[in-house]
Amino acid sequence: MVGVNGYDRIARFYRVMEWAAFGPHLNRSRVAILSDLPAVSRVLVLGDGDGRLLQRLCLEHPDATIVSVDQSPKMLELQRRRVKAIGGEDRAEWIQCDAIDFSPEPGRFDLLVTAYFLDCFTESQLETNLTKWLAGVRDGGCWYVVEFTRPASKLQRVVADPILWMMHAFFRWQTGLPNRSLVDLNPILGRLPIRMVKRQTRFCGMMTSRIYAKMPLTSSP
Ligand SMILES: C[S@@+](CC[C@H](N)C(=O)[O-])C[C@H]1O[C@@H](n2cnc3c(N)ncnc32)[C@H](O)[C@@H]1O
């Protein structure tokens, strides 16, 4: 599990580092369109980090049960603490493993949540694993995804490119992240059985929050 030690090391400082780099913007992007999600009963969260989004999910969906998968024991500990603080621990299950080894039961969840998680993987890892993770969502269910993105505007790229480069350098150094630059998710997402329902972009076009609906797979004749 490449990166476990790195994420364990930065877990306690994650929030402060995030604030130093992006002020309130990263957290705002995390919850930007959270309230646009429909009511859900079963939620799968991959790589939640220190539990802030998990806590919000518990509050916004008080009847939902949540499975949270993360490879870092320290991040999971912070998640537990935050969820416990709002009395939600009975509704949550924590699984410590490499998400690459995790195959959700097909169609078990109404909602998949990934926030700043996909950028931990290479393009080929995403090609293989996104299909598998998404299979855990029932047809008609949702995927809430928040990620960095390279802005389309050349002017915005002048600001975004050095920031994205520095971020990758930091995570390569601390967690062994193999990527040197942001993987372009759009071609990969375009091959998945999903339809975008809502999108919001912020912070110079660098942060995108999206809701997708999972479509039934059409079988070829
Ligand atoms: C960059 S942090 C993002 C945390 C949080 N979701 C956020 O919005 O900032 C990535 C999180 O995913 C976890 N993670 C990274 N690679 C993973 C993997 N292969 N399997 C499971 N968890 C992983 C890390 O431990 C960490 O908690």
Automatic annotation (TrEMBL):
- Tell me if Methyltransferase is a UniProt keyword of this record: yes
Q: Which GO terms describe its biological process?
A: methylation
Q: Which UniProt keywords apply?
A: Methyltransferase, Transferase, Ubiquinone
Highest taxon in the source lineage: Bacteria
Q: Does the keyword Aminoacyl-tRNA synthetase apply?
A: no
Molecular function terms from GO: methyltransferase activity
Q: Where is the Methyltransferase domain?
A: 43-141
Q: What is this protein called?
A: Ubiquinone/menaquinone biosynthesis methyltransferase
